[in-house]
Amino acid sequence: MKKSGSVTIFVCLIFICISALICGLLESARTSGARLYLQTAGDSAIDSLFSRYHRALWDNYKILSLESESDEKISELMLSYMQPYIENSGMYRIQNPQIKLNKKISLSDNGGMYLEQEIIDYMSLGVFESVFEGSPDDLWKDIEDAMSMEKITTDYGLGSKEAIEVEKTLKRLSENIEKQEEIRSKMKSAVSAQNISEIKKLCKDLKSTLKKVPDLIKKYEKKADRMSEKIREIENKNADNISKLSESNREYIDGEISKFKEYVDKDSERRIEISALAGLSESMISEVEELESDIESLQEMMEAEDDEEQDYDIGEAWNNLGSGIDALTVMRLNFKYGIADEEKEEKLKQVKELISDGIFSLVIPENREVSNKSINRLSLPSNAITGGYSGRNLAQRLLVNEYMGTYFADFTDDIDTPLSYELEYILNGDTSDRINLENAILKILAIREGLNYMHIISDASKMQSAQELATVISGVLCLPQITLLIKFLIIAVWALVESAIDLRCLLSGGKVPLIKSRDDWSADLDSIFDILNNNSLREKEASSRGINYEGYLKMLLYIEEPVKRNFRMMDIMQLDISRSQNDFLINDMVYGIEADIGCGAKRLFSEISFFSEEFVGLDSGYDMAVKVEKIY
User: Fold this and answer.
1) Running DSSP on this structure, what letter comes out for residue 53?
2) What's the farthest any 2 CA atoms get from each other in the chain?
3) pLDDT over 90 percentage in the chain
4) What are residue 67's DSSP bridge partners?
5) For residue 609, is pLDDT > 50?
6) If you count Cβ atoms within 10 Å of the first and of the last residue's Cβ in the chain, which end, N or C, has fewer?
7) What is the pLDDT of residues 329-348, one digit of tens each?
8) CA-based angle 447:451:455, to the nearest 5?
9) 250-291 pLDDT per residue, tens
């Protein structure tokens, strides 16, 4: 039996299935579109947020950064920038967006690494001329080598002061011996004149002179011990420095040190003979006392001369007294000793001390007053340094170095800011302008001393002049080693005087070549003592060749510890901008953000009433999340 049927139901079922599939595909595509829309909204919001860079920080220092005190404030701002996207989401039906900050990078994080990165990014856009010719690392190796060498030889040169003190005590002993001889000569004259009272007085003088010998010997031994101790101190102090010297400089230093040791060896030989003089002086005093007994006997004879019963010959007694004086032991020094011109040697030390102790007042230009400004560092970034810094390559370090010279002031700029000497602060980190300037001056002085010292020892004519002056001061009769030690002192003082003149030139806005030629030299050896009379330095002629004061500061900043340097830069930025914005804090400056953005979205195609029952197992909405990140 045939049965009749209709395809309508079958077609409807097929249509429903196909429609459900299509709606599901459309809903899936809409969901992907909604996620992309949310990502676009989030990216637009964070871009808009980062367009709110701090204007003053950019204008003054070319640093882009977002000022924000809290994560909540950042989230609120981003939500406000997303709101137009939410309101006009259309078929994407996005609602209830939420923002969670996963990471907020501040300029001061990781040792100021992000501040550095901003500096590098900006400075890479320009062309700048570095103060360094060639590799700065190689140059600094040469400079440090020169500084170490100058320091070592200066220590030994100043150690010559101990040796000279030894020679001075020997000279005092020699003067005592000369006085003994002078008294004996007078005693002989008094015998010839038969002046008994004069002879008695001269005996007392001779005994008094002899009694001073042990004290003079003790002073000598004390000075000699101090010299030996000083040499050990210098050797221990400079052992590491000597090992770091270049081979040629180490050979030179070893040769110079050996001369110092030769002096010590010679003095050891002299010491044996000198120590024996203490016992000799005692026996000589006994001889004088016996002579005094003879004088007393002679005086008694002279008083009883009119007594005819006395049987004696006064003339013979006078002859015996003269023979007794001739028989007195003679004290001698059978070695070389002393220096010829103590006054000039003393002046060398005075020049050294005057410049070393008073360098600040000597080099500041007369028309300038030193700033006495100071700051409170309690709220500054450097009061809470963070770590995590990673190093930079040579090109990046040079860019940071040039940036500091471009955007921070130094003494020669003479500006009115919270700290007038900004580069000096970045270099030294003290709260006082004056102290920062003093420390900067001392550091530049050390560089110039080392390089000037190297110039002197490489210039044959200057070394000859130093040798001639050393010979004049020491004299031809002293130990040759003393002349060499005094030459050390002369070279050290000469290099120091020249360095002080260099510094005065730099602080006056002039230039000084790093490596000098003979034409660049200012201080004559004959004129280095003028500073004691004038208490001032000679003026240096202006030169277009060389590096200015800022350049020397940048050289020093190149080797400054990067984290300290970065935070001190931020200190200056905060101090400067705080003048117009009291609540400005570098720690509030945001360099980068990473955030998660979540939201809800309603289904569209799965909620069409005709098909809603087919999707009854699905929720009416779902959640989406995207990640956004941004750095300047």
Assistant:
1) B
2) 204
3) 29
4) 589
5) no
6) N
7) 899 888 777 777 777 877 88
8) 165
9) 777 777 777 777 777 777 788 888 888 888 999 999 988 888
Residue 344 near residue 472, CB atoms below 8 Å: yes
Q: Which runs of consecutive H residues, i.e. helices, occur in 304-341?
A: 314-327
Looking at the chain, the whole-number percentage of residues with pLDDT higher than 70 is 89
The span from the CA of 151 to the CA of 499, in Å, is 14
Residue 599 burial by CB count (10 A; 0-12/13-18/19+): exposed, middle or buried?
A: buried
Residue 353 Cα to chain centre, angstroms: 19
Both tokens assigned to 573: 């930025």
pLDDT greater at residue 427 or residue 539: 427
Provide the phi-psi class of 93: left if phi over 0, else alpha when psi is between -120 and 50, else beta: left
Q: Is the pLDDT of residue 70 over 70?
A: yes
Residue 86 and residue 173: Cα distance in Å, rounded? 103
- Measured CA to CA in angstroms, residue 360 lies from 10, 349, 365, 505 at distances of 105, 18, 10, 13
What is the Cα–Cα distance from 480 to 263, expressed in whole angstroms? 8
Record the tokens describing residue 487, joined without a space: 């030459």
Here the tokens at position 389 are 């810094």
Helix axes 136-192, 342-363, angle to 10 degrees: 140
Residue-wise pLDDT for 23-55, tens only, equals 667 666 777 777 888 888 889 999 999 998 999
E strand or H helix at 96 = strand 94-106
Alpha carbon separation from 402 to 119, 375, 429, 448, 567 (Å, rounded) = 10, 25, 19, 22, 17
Q: How far apart are CA 612 and CA 627, in angstroms?
A: 33
Hey, which of 17-31, 238-252, 368-382 has the most confident mean pLDDT? 368-382
DSSP 509: T
Angle at 513 between CA 510 and CA 519, to 5 degrees: 95
* Residue 530 identity (one-letter amino acid): D
**How far apart, in whole angstroms, are the C-alpha atoms of residue 75 and residue 78?**
5
- Identify the burial level of 524 via C-beta atoms within 10 angstroms of its C-beta, where 0-12 means exposed, 13-18 middle and 19 or more buried: middle
Which candidate, 395, 428, 411, places its Cα nearest to that of 556?
A: 428
| Residue-wise pLDDT tens digits, 466-509 | 888 888 887 766 677 778 778 888 888 899 889 999 999 999 99
Q: Which sign, positive or negative, has the C-alpha torsion 298, 302, 304, 306?
A: positive
Q: What is the DSSP string of 567-626?
A: HHHHHHHHHHHTTT-TT--GGGEEEEEEEEEEEEEE-SGGG-TTTGGGGTTS-SEEEEEE
For residue 89 the two structure tokens come to: 């989401």
Amino acid at 353: E
Asked whether 351 and 497 are in contact (CB, 8 A), the reply is: yes
Alpha helices in 62-112 (DSSP H): 71-87
Using CA of residue 472, residue 343, residue 526, residue 546, what is the dihedral sign? positive
- Residues in CB range of 168: below 8 A, 6 or more apart: 223, 338, 339, 342
Of 617, 561, 271, whose CA–CA distance to 387 is shortest? 561
Q: In whole numbers, what is the pLDDT of the chain averaged over residues?
A: 83
For residue 67, pLDDT beyond 70: yes
- What are the structure tokens assigned to 473, written together? 């001061």
